[in-house]
User: Fold BPL/LPL catalytic domain-containing protein from Gemmatimonas groenlandica.
Amino acid sequence: MSISRVVPSIATETAQSGLAAASASPDVMPRQWGFLRSPASDGVTNMAIDSALLDLASESACAVWRCYAWEKPTVSFGRNERTQGTFSAQRLRDVGLCAVRRPTGGRALLHAREVTYSVAMPLDEQQSWRVAYAAVNQVLLRALQSLGVPAQLVADQDAAAVAPDGPVCFDRPAAGEITVHGRKLVGSAVWRQGGAYLQHGSILLADDQAQLADAADVPLPPPPPAASLDACAPAQARWDLVVDALAASLAAGAAPLLCTRVVPFVPPPDFPQRVASHRAILGNDDWLWRR
Assistant:
């Protein structure tokens, strides 16, 4: 399949992990959400499901918050991240890691012991993606704080500039991201598709990111220790507890008078076909190693 046909409806990338977030507006968040708890899947399937949910958001204004896990430790690369000369299929296999390229931006990230979330929602084309990014991060922040995690958002003035090509996602926090004592706890990446928005990322239950240095073909400095729930809130470092907190935070809305209806997501009949279509593209080596 020609790589020029990859996710044909996706428009030019407008944002990626590490860009500053604007002040959140409650108006950007839909008042009704589907909530989906997915079983652990391989990397290509996980990215294909997120892409299919983005299609639904674009076509039918469906908003879905999804939480999921990974069958095997998997490195994901950003949509336009350059991997040639740094990572290779053989080296990743040698160290026991799978690989996938995300439909969103950002940099290399190892998915292992974590809660992965994705948010696919309609977003007016006149509305800045930064407002959606900030609103989603507020849901994440409230959930973590409800678990007793001393999490906070990185202010613009405290953020470092982050290059899109490396070295890895968790090496330093950027504006709008969630940290604990200055260390990144949540890494996120985004993509905008016409009138819809996708944001997904990792909430670390444990810090496995140093393994990325061993998985590279060239010497990489190991990233500084990331924040993780097993370090800052050990009793809360469970997938189910974090997912429950996310669902409650989403339902709470931005204010008491703006409570949100959250219901289990029921996929449409053609959803498996949508996922299979994206799998055919995202599982292609021409897509994975295209840069």
Remarks:
- The two ends are 17 Å apart (CA to CA).
- The longest helix spans residues 43-60.
- The mean pLDDT is 85.
- The first strand starts at residue 32 and ends at 37.
